[in-house]
Amino acid sequence: MIALPNDDNSCGWYQALPPAAPATRLKGSQKADYTVLGAGFAGLAAARRLAELKPDARIVLVDAQRVAEGASGRNSGFVIDLPHKFALEHPDPVHKQKLLDLNRAAIAQLQGLVERHGIDCQWSAVGKYQGAVGERGIAFLEHFEHLMKDLGEPYHWVDKAELSRVLGTGFYRQAIFTPGCYLMQPAALVRGMAEHLPENVELLEQSPIRSLRREGGLWRLQGDEGEIQAPTLLLGASIFTREFGYLKNRLLPVMTFASWTRPLTDDELARYGGELNWGLTPADHAGTTLRMTADRRILIRNSYKHVPKYGASVSEGMRSKIRADHRKAFLDRYPELAEVPFTHTWGGVYAISRNFTNFFGELEDGVYASACDNGVGAAWGTISGTLLADMAVGADTQALRDIRQVTGMPSLNPPEPFLGLGVKSRIRLAKWQSRSEL
Known about the structure:
By secondary structure, this protein is α/β, with parallel strands linked by helices. The chain has helices at 12-15, 41-53, 85-88, 93-117, 135-151, 160-167, 186-194, 266-272, 316-333, 377-393, 398-406, 418-433, and strands at 28-31, 34-37, 59-62, 78-79, 128-132, 156-158, 174-178, 182-183, 201-204, 209-215, 218-223, 226-230, 232-235, 252-261, 278-282, 289-292, 298-306, 342-352, 359-364, 367-371. The strands form four sheets. Strands 6-7-5-15-16-17-14-18 form an eight-stranded mixed beta sheet. Strands 9-3-2-13-20-19 form a six-stranded mixed beta sheet, covered by helices on one side.
């Protein structure tokens, strides 16, 4: 039995969009040269690249939900050029430079699409802050500075006074600013890219695939009202890769949660006193991510949960507790805005691996996958999806060689119930250790 996405319907980014046009669903028997499963950052990039490389091919891109309803439309709106914090600690500087180059290639690709198609998604090259509240956070910042020096990347320290001027709160003690991050409205970006796919890509939404089998040299994807047959399948389904029998004991489903306010009024904006359109990630990775959007909304993101049943693992009681935690974090930072309500609280599920390794490559004959972005999906999904298409058609590029060198096999997980107990204990410990930074 394939477990499908079970996302809440309260994602602020998605609800802020205008209503989508009616979906085209999978019906009847369809044949394609390539099928791409999952219409997030990876799947959209893979389908677009396949269409460029094979303009006469028929490419079918299929998703169980509407575009932008899933994980790609639920992140905090950062497109980060720097490797993940754990990857930054890799001992080989060449490895880290390859990751950096791949992320920047993704950013350039996304920017090109935004500009070419006029996608209205608050795309902006404003960099990001990495903020610390107390001594624990400062220690992480000092370590981050060391990693930046080793990488040879630009950064600068930001003191409390300057942070307060930008953020509108004196809650943070210090930060390090790095200039290469872009901010965006993720649901708007993903939907915009889907609306401008090449002509030889057909997008099928609200079309869950219930089974996958190989028959007569073709991969057959069975849906509720039809099937797709294709010799080549590209999986851009992230954590749901394991639902089709691949990497089954190697991916961990984790959900992180966010809440945001309605747009601030002019009076509230004056009381806030900071700038618009910035993003701050925590120096301590278990801390709080903070955004002020270009359209005046304050976003709080923290709280991590192990979700073996994806959205079905989240109860209303859990959601209420998370919302209360977000409210406390908001009031700690902006007590003068106590009357400003949250309008949406949502979660998004992603895949991590115990050894923080991304999977990229061929799973078996004719099946390719990019899975396990370890929580940095916008840039990584874009470049890995693009290069997965290169691999599927037999192209040979330096970027493809690079991504194969910096990816590998996620490590095996212990069996349940030990896995679940261990992950939950680790999350609780991280929250307790990071309590001063929340």
